[in-house]
Amino acid sequence: MLGSAGLVAMISIGILFLMWCVPYVFAAVHPIRYRISLIEACIMQSVGLIGEAILLWNLPSGLDMTPASIQRFIIFDGVGLILLLTALFLTIHMKTGNRSSSV
Length: 103
Hints:
83% of the residues lie in helices and 0% in strands. It is built from four helices and no strands.
């Protein structure tokens, strides 16, 4: 059972997750038009992945479930980063293709 402080902390983290998702929404809606959001999402995903890896490597011993939880986030963020970078690569290629065909 969470106390009041734990509940407030959990709700605050939920709000942060929603805030962080804003660039992802624009990048998903129109990745060519909102390329900057796609780039921001790639950077955010990279920061998360690197931060989680550093956190995992520096965990003190004796934490039973924590490493497995962090490893799941690393896998999730790693796959997400691969997908985001693929989308970025494809949109750069599409934009370059559109420019050369219209000239």
